[in-house]
Structures are given as structure tokens and as C-alpha cells.
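User: Small ask, check this?
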Amino acid sequence: MESRQENRGAVVLLTPVGRLDNDSSTDLELALADLAAAGARHYVVDLTQIGYVSSAGLRVLTVAAKKAEELERIIAEEN
């Protein structure tokens, strides 16, 4: 899965492209972990370029939202 990352001031826009399935969910998980490791406090996952989300993809999004909440970070999912 390809993903684009764009900085918009204090907000990072992460746009994965294609399918978010069992094979590609790891790519998104790593991209989100990289954002957290870099100290990003505000980020948006733009799902407008995703055509399909499997349960594995939903798990990655759910875990990311929970981690963001624990770290008092803000994450939004745009669709």
C-alpha cells in the first residue's frame, strides 16, 4: 500500500492509497508508529483514497486511536 504524508502546519495528513487489508495494514501501522515516534501530536488519516478496509485494517485504526488517546494526542479519520 502506498501512502502520502503532508505537513499542514502543526497537523500531519497521512493519506493511504488502495486497499487496507491483511497484507497492507502493517504498512499503515508502521507509518502511524513513525509519526508517534517523531512526536507528531496532531494527525489526520485521510481514508478517501481507500476502497476497502478489512478487519485487520480496522484493528490498526482502532489501536492507533487508543494509543493517541493514551498519549493525549489528537487523531482524526477523514472519509
User: Anything to note?
Assistant: The chain has two helices and five strands.
